[in-house]
Amino acid sequence: MTQIKQQIIALGGGGFSMEPENPLLDRYILQQSNSQLPKICFLPTASGDSDRYITRFYEAFTPLACRSTHLSLFRPPTDSLTSLLQDQDIIYVGGGSTFNLMALWKAWKLDVVLRQVWERGTVLCGLSAGSLCWFDAGLSDSVIPGQYAELTGLGFLPGSHCPHYDGERGRRPIYQQCISAGKLADGVAADDGVALHYIGTELARVVSSRPAAKAYRVYLENGRLQEDAIAAQYLG
After folding, report:
1. Residue 70 among the catalytic residues
2. How confident is the model at residue 117 (pLDDT cuts 50, 70, 90)?
């Protein structure tokens, strides 16, 4: 009997919405499905289901070897959202407001459905808000406008997370301060262009669309903050 592999691919930044001319991470995501022509569903919830964002998703994925669709909570395409998500090989979550994403998903009970499909082998992935949401908690700029603050996630993955570690000036020091103060648990940060590939709840691989980009384990040891770089495998 084949064992089900639970996978989450969390992008600190990158993919079609940040690197439209660099498809390395998006191609990597498609390759993790067992299907030759995987069904991939885009969830643009964090952007308020932006029409432009949805269009960019189709522009990026239609030429690739996959069958693409999307789920808008503002304009649901079906009365059975559960069936739609259960039918997918990959679910790709876009960036935007993690705070609003969490509120809407819980209202629609998508948090429950997403855990179910993940446990059954659907690949979950996303960038920024679509990266942070899978962890116990993380550093977000969507809780208080203009400020970084701690935000509770879905808890599929243990510990905390910080995306855009090199892409936004304030993230690195504030994430470190939050861990030092005990406001966030030890965690993993990712530069833009870096994908954290989890098998089950263990970080199995780190890949990148940018040669110099890295991930970092950020943690307390004997009361002192430590930051250990994790080299990423460049996909180019």
Report:
1. no
2. very high
From the candidates 128, 142, 208, 209, which is the catalytic residue? 128
**Rounded to 5 degrees, what angle do the CA atoms 20, 61, 88 make?**
135
Using alpha carbons, select from 170, 194, 169, 174 the residue that is nearest to residue 184.
174
The pLDDT score that the predictor gives to residue 2 is 59
Q: What is the pLDDT of residues 43-81, one digit of tens each?
A: 999 999 999 999 999 999 999 999 999 999 998 877 789
Residue 80 among the catalytic residues: no
Residue that has been written with the tokens 């001319």 in this structure: 21
Q: Which domains does the chain possess?
A: 7-234 (3.40.50.880)
**Looking at the DSSP assignment, which residues form a beta bridge with residue 221?**
224
Measure the CA angle with vertex 9, ends 214 and 152; round to 5°: 90
pLDDT tens string 143-169: 887 799 999 999 999 999 999 999 998
The catalytic residue among 70, 161, 164, 197 is 164
